Amino acid sequence: MRMIQISPRIYAGETIYSIASRIVLNDVASSVSQSMLNVFDSKNIQLNSILPSYLNQLSSLTLRTVDYLIDNHTLFEYYSAFSPDRIKKQARDFFKKGDSSATFKALGLLANRIADVEIHKYCPVCALEQEFLFGEAFWLLDHQLPLSLACIKHECMLEAKAKARKQLIFPDVDRAAVRCTTPLLFKIAELNSYLVNGYSFDPVRLNQVYAVRLINRGFATTKAVKHIKWRNEMRVYFSSLMNNEQVRKLLESSSEHGFPANIFYHDDSSHHPIKHVLIISFLFDHFGDFIVAYSQGESLLASKVKPATPQANIDTERHSKTLKLLKSGMSLRDVIRHANVSAATVRIVASKHGIALHENSRKVSNSMRRAILVQLMIGKSTQMLAEAFKLSIGDIEQTLIGQTLIKTLRQRIRFYNHRRAARQAVISALYTLVRPSISKLRKTVDKEYMWLYRHDRRWLNDFKNTYFDKQVRE
User: Fold this and answer.
1) CA distance 103 to 100
2) Which of 141, 247, 250, 275 has its CA 20 to 30 A from that of 398?
3) Are residues 417 and 386 in the same domain?
4) Can you give the residue range of the structural domain that contains 329?
């Protein structure tokens, strides 16, 4: 396996589980349990906990402070975003001491009836890019957020792998991406991605913001919340997510938990962030709309000349406006501004209706685009083509939009090139070793050996059996 590193690799946005698993994998031992014992002095640590107890040990191994690991590689900011500052500080102190149970309890996660989903999520395109850039795929923090089911960057659905206590799990790099065509999934994923950035919302002020928006939307009066109407509208709006167990438990008709009205019962109550994410997604057009209402306040509408429009209809109208603007030939940036939607929403609507996005200044002509596509088909890198055609890498990548077959072909080319290079590195390494052994081979070609172990194990085993058996006979 990989050689033990003095300062293990840590990637931006990577999860604690991913970092810890790589360190365990780097330990040369006969089993995962033995490696766990070597690294953490215990084989019973739960590596895949959402708020793990081993941060202090990991801090010593990675030479990063516990605060750094919490802020950059855990979901603590997400789970504490809607807690009072006093509770947040108390939970953080417990977390830093390695007391996961007390952390969960302080944040109210034990009292809530929303169970954690026992899966790791990843974007197939992100995993492939990681494999190409770093030689290995890893888990990203944003993808693990509850209810985040789509990758904002690549506009595709996230894939899932079940958590395993006694195995080290990493993303697959050979899965085809499935395009996401549900704007609501992007809306929730975008909202979630902001909540890991250190926001802290005062519960009293938050309830006031909710109340004003509910009144202006016709779901409440100044005296009471129209709970049944609000709940029914949310069930319609989130109908595409009702197969999700966490959403279904909150909104199904047989539920007796009182959501969403119970968000107002006590100002000091702790609620699971999922509840707030659903409410914000339903009441507000986007995260910016919510932040403006929270920071600047929102006035009650003096009167209503017509009934409040259901949120589902509001989104439908916005998408219809987006489609109309796209058909008029308006550019991506102008559509975003006039329709008040995200770039991802515009691309989804355009893709759904087969409309080519119009750019304000088209750098790539049709003839140039065809020439670029030919070069991409034979595996030329985007950087090389950008230099050859005097364009940016982003311009080159734009030509690949909608070219699924070419993307798949390039993936296979990269795979075969990587495999050839890795095999050659392993073979060449043997000539540099005085007394070759499998252990020495692992340490000498760390990255290439593990890549072959994951993606070309049959060849690697045949090579070891052939070479080392021959060496023994000699």
Assistant:
1) 5
2) 141
3) no
4) 313-352
> What pLDDT digit, counting tens, does each position of 207-230 carry?
999 999 999 999 988 888 888 899
Least confident among 47-61, 159-173, 415-429, 460-474? 460-474
The Cα–Cα gap between 251 and 228 comes to: 11
Q: What is the DSSP letter of 262?
A: G
Residue 129 shares a structural domain with residue 80? yes
Residue 41 shares a structural domain with residue 121? yes
Model confidence, pTM: 0.67
Handedness of CA 136, 140, 144, 150 (dihedral sign): negative
42 and 113 assigned to the same domain: yes
Dihedral in degrees, nearest 10, Cα atoms 312, 313, 315, 321:
170
DSSP for 395-439, please give it.
Answer: HHHHTTTT-HHHHHHHHHHHHHHHHHHHHHHHHHHHTT-SS--HH
Alpha helices for 107-244 (secondary structure H)? 124-134, 183-195, 203-216, 227-237
Task: Report yes or no: 216 and 300 within 8 Å, Cβ to Cβ.
Answer: yes
d(CA 406, CA 112): 47
Q: Kindly give the pairing relationship between strand 150-151 and strand 156-157.
A: antiparallel
Q: How far apart (Å, rounded) are the C-alpha atoms in residues 359 and 186?
A: 22
Q: Is 61 in the same domain as 31?
A: yes
Residue 305 scores a pLDDT above 70: no
Q: Using one digit for the tens of pLDDT, what is the confidence trace for 91-115?
A: 999 999 999 999 988 888 876 667 7
- Helix (H) or strand (E) run with residue 151 in it: strand 150-151
Question: Which residue bears the tokens 């659903």?
Answer: 278
Give dist(CA 173, CA 131) in Å, integer: 7
| Rounded Cα–Cα distance for residues 312 and 91 (Å) | 37
